[in-house]
Amino acid sequence: MKRVVALAILVVSVSLVALISFRPESDSSPPSSERNLFLTVQEWGFNQTNGGPTITVNAGETVRLSIKNTGQLVHEVAATPVIGAELYWYVIEPDEAVTIKFVPLAQGDFFLICMIPEHLKQGMQTRVIVEG
Q: Which of 21, 61, 83, 116 lies in disulfide reach of 79, CB 3.0 to 4.6 Å?
């Protein structure tokens, strides 16, 4: 019983730290040194396409990515494999938006995908290229 309580406390603590550390940015006026990108997400893609545009950023560059759900369904957007130090996974309700601030650390090809299995099967992914 003590192990279950200790495990529950650990899970709640880690979850709270994650929520505090990685919540979407609410400041609407980013510093000029940040790169601003904007996407819409809707049924079955990004920016009104099946799939989405290819996004190119530089390793070490601060990126502020705003995503607005213009669709009728809830979408869960995540980066895979991890871009930077954290995995960004956001639930975006219809007509809502999130802003994700991150610094890609490694070069390579990544994807922003909708984590809802049927949505991903319909092609909800957009490519992100991180260059040196």
A: 83
